[in-house]
Amino acid sequence: MRRLQVGDEVVVIRGNHKGKRGKVTRLLPDRNAVVVEGINVVKRHLKPAPNRPGGIVEVEAPLDASKVMPIDPATGKRTRVRAQLEEGNKLRVAVKSGTPLPSRVVS
Questions:
Q1: At CA 28, angle to CA 23 and CA 70, rounded to 5?
Q2: Confidence grade of residue 107 (pLDDT, cut at 50, 70, 90)
Q3: pTM: predicted TM-score of the whole model, two decimal places
Q4: Which residues are CB-neighbours of 6 under 8 A, at least 6 positions away?
Q5: d(CA 91, CA 85)
Q6: Right CATH number for 9-94 from 2.40.50.100, 2.30.30.30, 3.40.190.80, 1.10.287.110?
Q7: Alpha-carbon distance values, 84 to 3, 93, 105 (Å)
Q8: Cβ atoms of 78 and 56 closer than 8 Å
Q9: Domain residue spans of the chain
Q10: What are phi and psi of 34, to 5 degrees?
Q11: Dihedral of CA 12/17/23/25: which sign?
Q12: What count of other Cβ atoms lies within 10 Å of the Cβ of residue 95?
């Protein structure tokens, strides 16, 4: 069970973007990294290809997963996550308030 899922609202706790909030758009479990919408935007210089023009494109670069924390839906502040068994299912629960974090099924 992962503490972060795609679509979670997170806050950055370390680095140049400390305090900024955004939604998780991608998880990279092999690198222990996440891509957060609007955070850690870098410029990529792309060569032209047959199906797209070249140029300078801004993309979100991955952040280490340890540098972000989910936001508690009840308080709006950052929180740690704990797993809790309920009716045979694991739920992600905010440690501070005890409210379950919404789970999203991504197909």
A1: 35
A2: very low
A3: 0.82
A4: 24, 25, 26, 27, 104, 106
A5: 6
A6: 2.30.30.30
A7: 12, 7, 18
A8: no
A9: 9-94
A10: -135, 155
A11: negative
A12: 10
Residue 1's pLDDT band (cuts 50, 70, 90): low
Hey, which bits of 29-80 come out as E strands?
Answer: 33-36, 41-46, 55-60, 63-64, 68-70
pLDDT digits (tens, 9 = 90+) for 11-50: 999 999 999 999 999 999 999 999 999 999 999 999 999 9
Running DSSP on this structure, what letter comes out for residue 67? Answer: G
- Among residues 52, 55, 26, 56, the alpha carbon closest in space to that of 39 is found at 26
Q: For 51-102, what is each residue's pLDDT tens digit?
A: 989 999 999 999 999 999 999 989 999 999 998 888 888 889 999 888 988 8
Kindly state the tokens that stand for 57: 């494109």
